[in-house]
Design goal:
There is one protein chain. This protein has 390 residues and is α/β, with parallel strands linked by helices. It has 3 domains: 145 residues, At1g16640 B3 domain (Beta Barrel); 113 residues, no CATH class; 113 residues, Restriction Endonuclease, CATH 3.40.91. Helix content is 37%, strand content 19%. The protein has 11 helices and 14 strands. The strands form 2 sheets. The protein has an 8-stranded mixed β-sheet with strand order 2-5-4-3-7-6-1-8. Strands 9-10-11-12-13-14 form a 6-stranded mixed β-sheet. A hairpin with a 6-residue loop joins strand 4 and strand 5. The termini are far apart. 35% of the residues are buried. GO terms for molecular function: DNA binding; type II site-specific deoxyribonuclease activity.
Length: 390
């Protein structure tokens, strides 16, 4: 029996246009907004309309949507352009619709156009499904909330592209290590766009997202170069095909898992923070970051109030519990994630167990209003560590 993920991938492959986004608190009404229904980014108007909405008017379109290859809704895609509003929403799903609940915050919504008025939609709920979706389509977790796939704009970023090609030419191995990939992509971006340490310090939340996106583009460039000839040659056996596909997918997931940690390290170095990474605490546990260092952690005379532990996970709806016993001396565990939105119930459980979320500042709007003051940005987390290290 095919999984929901497999059905979503197959549907996308058969369509001319598809869209993805994390379900947010704004969609479910958890922010206190009166208007429930999926907010669709303005750059995705062509998913439903032939022309973008015109300010000063409201426009709508009624469509049939089949959800999870199971049931259908008669839904309405509407552009609100009157008054102060300027937004697109997908509404009207009928009584008992299961995907606009608080627990759906942080799930991944996928909408695929099959005909002019018939669509398919899928909701991926587990971290593993979402990670596999990104890996299968070779898109970045930072590249959601838009049309799939979003192509790398070479024409407007010639300097960056030239740096990619120079790095590709210099490679003496099939694929660079995750650290080399992160470092070189970051250097390419910083040089191409004139990013200085002062700029990074002024907005670390913005720059880490730029680095993550640039690394993903560099990885795609290398991957295309390495596999373009191979995939044009017939595979001799099914086993050979499966082995090649698994190699590609495993490398994608491995890169994504380490990428965030590498770029966070660079942020901490830029701010001249003292820290240790991937060191061993109790029971052979390995927290991603300990501030100020492992020696201070194991020194029982060192004030535990000055110790900080940070885990980094691209998605954390299911995985946040993994960090609870990584450092017994530190009561509050900080967790940096690229997850865009988590339900109120899950957040309550996280904070009950003293897990404090840290997210890029642009992602704060994806979370329920009740928790926005509790969730830290990368900038505010750095300031807390700086204060403890004074």
């Amino acid at each position: 029996m095919e999984s929901i993920l497999q059905k979503a991938i197959q549907s996308i492959q058969k369509s001319s246009i598809a869209f993805s986004k994390y379900i947010t608190a704004n969609d479910t009404g958890a922010t206190g907004a009166h208007q429930a229904g999926f907010h669709i980014h303005k750059n995705a108007w062509q998913l439903f309309f032939k022309t973008p909405g015109k300010k000063g008017t409201n426009e709508d379109k009624f469509v049939t949507i089949k959800w999870q290859d199971d049931f259908e809704t008669q839904s309405r895609f509407i552009y609100y352009g009157t008054g102060t509003r300027n937004e697109y929403r997908l509404t009207r799903f009928g009584k008992g619709f299961p995907y606009l609940q608080d627990d759906n915050i942080g799930d991944l919504l996928i909408i695929i156009k099959r005909t002019d008025d018939y669509y398919e939609a899928f909701v991926l709920q587990s971290d593993e499904e979402i990670d596999d979706f990104f890996a299968e389509l070779n898109i970045s977790s930072t590249d959601t909330n838009g049309i799939l796939p979003r192509q790398f704009q070479q024409t407007s970023e010639d300097k960056l592209h030239d740096c990619f090609l120079a790095f590709l030419k210099s490679l003496k191995v099939d694929f660079p290590t995750t650290l080399e990939l992160a470092t070189n992509s970051r250097n390419c971006y910083n040089n191409a766009f004139g990013i200085t340490q002062q700029i990074i310090k002024s907005n670390p939340d913005k720059e880490i997202l730029n680095w993550l996106n640039t690394e993903f583009q560099l990885f795609k460039t290398i991957e295309i170069d390495r596999y373009s000839k191979r995939i044009q040659t017939p595979f001799k056996t099914v086993e050979e095909l499966v082995e090649t596909a698994n190699t590609i997918l495993n490398r994608r997931k491995s890169r994504a898992g380490k990428s965030l940690e590498h770029h966070l390290s660079e942020i901490f170095k830029t701010f001249q923070l003292d820290y240790s990474t991937q060191t061993i605490t109790e029971d052979n546990k390995k927290p991603d970051f300990i501030f100020p260092n492992l020696e201070a952690y194991h020194n029982l005379k060192f004030d535990p109030e000055k110790l900080v532990v940070l885990a980094s996970k691209t998605t954390c709806k299911d995985r946040w519990r993994q960090i609870l016993n990584e450092a017994d001396r530190v009561k509050t565990k900080h967790l940096f994630t690229l997850q865009q939105g988590i339900s109120k119930n899950q957040l309550e459980e996280m904070y009950k167990y003293n897990v404090c979320l840290v997210v890029p500042k642009p992602y704060l709007t994806s979370f329920p209003q009740d928790f926005k003051e509790k969730i830290l940005t990368l900038d505010s987390f750095v300031k807390i560590v700086q204060f403890k290290q004074q």
